Amino acid sequence: MDYTNSIEVHNLKKYYKDTKAVDGISLSIEKGKVTAILGPNGAGKTTTVETLEGLRKADSGEIYYFGEKIKEVDEKIKEKIGVQLQSSTFLSNLTVYETIKTFAGLYKKSLDVDKIIIKFNLEEKKKSKIKNLSGGEQQRVALACAVINDPEIVFLDEPTTGLDPQARRNLWTAIEELKKDGKTVVLTTHYMEEAEYLSDKIYIVDHGKIIAEGKVNELVKTINMKSVINFSVNHKSEIFSEYQKNEDGIFKTETSDIEKTLVEIYEKARKNDLTIENLSIRNPNLEDVFLHLTGRKLRD
Ligand code: ADP
Q1: Which CATH fold topology does 5-221 show?
Q2: Ligand 1 proximity of 40 Cβ (cutoff 6 Å)
Q3: What is the value of pTM for the model shown?
Q4: Which protein residue has the closest C-alpha to ligand 1 atom 15?
Q5: pLDDT tens digits, residue range 172-229?
Q6: Domain-by-domain residue ranges, the chain?
Q7: Distance 228 CA to ligand 1 centre (A)
Q8: ∠ at Cα 52 (48, 58), nearest 5°?
């Protein structure tokens, strides 16, 4: 069957007593793309993806996998999806090789364990026990286990939580590799930089509902926010008195035309024989989108 969306979800609901964990979520997960579900803790991300993985049962809603409506996530579907488990679920005394080999044994079809170890840059750690790995290495093992069955779809639930910036970057590279391999990736995260960097499409969720969806630039455009330019000058700062200045002598101006404003600033400096120092530009980002929509920060 031909399909553009590996998964489609219509009006998914899952309530726990008083908590509307998922409250009518609809998603289109495009084949071969990275889709991010971005939202603060408790927004309903894990409940949503675990329902798609067959680990939880929804109260209502429709799920389509590979173009067909499904009643439940059966074994046939599970063969085609990969789930990145929390590394805490691994047996800490097994080696990297043994762990990945064990996961390979769970599927009818699996990739070569040694090749996967090379692919995820774990060769040097092949014989190390899980408990002796760094957080980033453990996450790479989890990623290796998630793709050992050569799945069409890979679910990554908060893959970089708790990692240092360098380990996070390394994991992002590994996730980009999955996309290059043609995998459909479903990613949940509360890091807006991660969603911004990795995904083709973003769903922003809050309190069990989708509050915005689209590509990063589309989402940012919707809030109509200006860019902010900060700069200072080496002397004679009164020349720039039309701009706001703070107590440290740094000028600030808001603009929806960065190029035009930069030209104005540099022209003025040149005419007055001044040097512009420490110029920085801040463009609106997903954090601003979230703040605009909810009045709250993504990470409180
Ligand atoms: P996220 O992954 O975005 O942090 P979750 O899907 O884990 O959010 O949780 C959404 C909401 O549902 C939270 O308020 C959480 O406390 C609640 N919740 C999740 N799982 C359960 C459960 N098994 N029992 C009761 N409440 C739950």
Answers
A1: Rossmann fold (3.40.50)
A2: no
A3: 0.89
A4: 42
A5: 999 999 999 999 999 999 999 999 999 999 999 999 999 999 999 999 999 889 999 9
A6: 5-221, 226-283
A7: 37
A8: 65
